[in-house]
C-alpha cells in the first residue's frame, strides 16, 4: 500500500504543478481582445449605446470599399487613432469593409452636428471615430467623452 501511495504522490504533484503553471499563464498575461460584433444595425446600435452614445437609429450613410494594402499612405493618422483604441483596423488592409455613419445626438458641450463612423470587417468592428464635420470640427476616438 505504501508503494501505491508513493507512486500516486509522485504522479500527482507534478501534474498539479503543471496545472497551476498552465492556469497562471492563461490568467496572468494579456488576453486577446474579443471581436466586437457589428454585422447588423442592432449590434452596432447596442455597441454605441453601451459606450454612452445616443444616435439616430439608421445610418446617415453606408459605404462599402476595399482598403488599400498599405494603409500608412492614405490612412496614416486614422490608423494611429485605431491603434490607440486597440481596434484592429490594420488587420483589414486590402480587404472589403463597410463604414456606417450615424448622427450622434448627445455629444457634450458641442452644438454642431456630430457623426460617428463604425468600420466593419467580416462582421466585426475594426475601427471607429467621432467627427464634427465642417469649420471648427474635430475627429476623435469612439469613446464617449467625459
Write the layout of secondary structure elements.
Layout: H1 2-28, H2 41-51, E1 61-66, H3 71-84, E2 96-104, E3 114-121, E4 124-132, E5 138-140
Antiparallel strand pairs: 1-2, 2-3, 3-4, 4-5
Explain this structure.
- The chain is of the alpha+beta class.
- The protein folds into two domains: 1-31; 41-140, no CATH class.
- Helices cover 36% and strands 24% of the residues.
- It is built from three helices and five strands, in the order ααβαββββ.
- Strand 4 (124-132) and strand 5 form a beta hairpin.
- The N and C termini lie far apart (68 Å).
Put the structure in a nutshell.
This protein is an alpha+beta fold and 146 residues long.
User: What portion of residues is helical?
Assistant: 25-40%
Q: Characterize the biggest β-sheet.
A: 5 strands, antiparallel
- Could you give the distance between the termini? 68 Å
Total number of distinct structural domains: 2
Count of DSSP H/I helices: 3
Rg computed from alpha carbons, rounded to a whole number of angstroms: 23 Å
Number of strands: 5
Written as H for each helix and E for each strand, in order along the chain, the element string is: HHEHEEEE
DSSP strand (E) fraction? 15-25%
Strand order within the widest sheet?
A: 1-2-3-4-5
Structural class: alpha+beta
Stretches with pLDDT under 50, minimum 5 residues: 7-31
Overview features:
5 strands, alpha+beta, 2 domains, 146 residues, single chain, 3 helices
